[in-house]
Amino acid sequence: MQLSRSARIALRVAAGFGFVVIYVPLLLVLVNSLNPDRSASWPPSGLTVHWWSVAWDNSGAREALWTSVKAGLGANPVALALGTLIAFAVARHRFFGRNAISFVVVLPIALPGIVTGIALNSAFSTVLEPLGVGLGLFTVVVGHATFCIVVVFNNVVARLRRTSGSFEEAAMDLGANTFRAFADVTFPLVRSALFAGGLLAFALSFDEIVVTTFTAGPGVETLPIWIFNNMTRPQQAPVVNVVAAVLVLLSVIPIYVAQRLSADTATGSRV
Amino acid sequence: MALITRTAGALHRRPRLRLTLLLTAPLLWLAVLYLGSLSVLFVSAFWTTNSFTSEVVKVWSTDNFHELFTVPVFRQVILRSIGVALAVTVLCAVIAFPLAFYTARVAKPRWRPLLVVAILTPLWASYLVKVYAWRLILSEGGLADWMLKPFGLSGPGYGLPATVLTLTYLWLPYMILPIHTALEQLPANLLDASADLGARGWRTFRSVVLPMVLPSVAAGSVFTFSLSLGDYITVQIVGGKTQLIGNLVYSNIELNLPMAAALGTVPVVVIVLYLLAMRRTGALSSL
What we know:
The structure holds 2 protein chains of 2 kinds.
Chain A: H1 5-32, H2 50-56, H3 59-92, H4 98-110, H5 113-128, H6 137-162, H7 166-173, H8 178-207, H9 210-215, H10 223-230, H11 237-250, H12 252-264
Helix pairs in contact in A: 1-11, 2-11, 3-6, 3-8, 3-10, 4-6, 6-8, 7-8, 8-12
Chain B: H1 2-13, H2 15-44, E1 48-49, E2 56-57, H3 63-70, H4 72-106, H5 112-124, H6 127-138, H7 143-148, H8 160-185, H9 188-196, H10 201-230, H11 233-238, H12 245-252, H13 257-279
Antiparallel strand pairs in B: 1-2
């Protein structure tokens, strides 16, 4: 399309402005963690790393981080297993209710988090509590696993659709049984999709606040819940600033891994 | 060893058995645990609460829904929430289009993948951290005030505009990506043909580019709309005294769960209606 010179310049300016708007808030969080004042007024009066060491010693934030990691690690295998099973069923079989299943998988993240949250909360408190299982880390893991299934499913099903079943058939023609064909042919084909799905699922779980609010017991505090609870306390502001900055820096990791992952695999993965 | 071979053979010969084994665990989880809880929630929307004891009374009644449509506060909040979701969607589309046009068509091809990564990066940053960033920006004496001071203005502070602004920032990547993909896949020969037929840039944009990209805008809008409609955390952090549906649901959970459930059906119904409307544009197939 032939764009006039002025149109090009206008688009360049608009895009530049857009990128500035996207990145300024994140940079602000980083700068603010070095702000010596407790208040967030701009510009900061100086730069210090003092609050980073204070944050490091903050047991509440550290415990919350650890709880988040545990919840993510707990939900991950469940989501990986269930998501992969459904992906294989949907991609390799034709059966009644196939579309309904793909729909139900998406539902937990398609519906507002608060709806999913109160549904699980009331189910847990009416069914599990009489059985002696109160709300706690276990129920958080169950809740997270439920909405993480979809990202694993999406990644694996996309990969399976691109690799037809003929590879497995060829392996079987050559004498491999079902398990052997899976281990030697199918699994290596979907491995990076599984990895990408797991990574996304972990990130999703790590970031989730609404479902966590409704499925966590009184003593269970993940990092987002900790931030939320401390965000409005002036006393805690410097530590919240540092934790927020750390999370911004950590978010580069999945991008890097995803980039490497799609460079490694011939088919590329849709992260 | 023989057992493994026999099992493998049986699995290979009986696709139905294979399918059953694949689906049992996930269906138990999703259908029993998730759909089960959801249905109980929706049924409970037809229950009521004893106003003295806050005990749930399990007798079928449509009182909650009646209240939903007649109490002015509820009606206002519902309309406000839909308005916020639409405003966020429009703002996202308006901001995303030039950005996506630049990354897909104007930038040098060498730079394009990098620019896509640059759009995706904030998607990975924590939701709460991004809202927090806006809380800092909009705070009294914060970045917004500081930037507007030379013009004799001050920032919007916390409230409804702050909520719309923050939600727009949060969901922007969900709008940019589908538009970028659609623009990137636009065949160059269509644009050439349009130029050959004498259309200038603006005419080509209106008659060729826009109709082909609109389904992707609609696809992006599904995310921006439904994510905004259900939100209550952002409103709590930057919204001041503003109330959206999510906040009403949240504040009713402890004392009146049936009312909370009835309120919770509102965003679900609105989102389903929105999806149905978007399906007519062909947007859902490009999701």
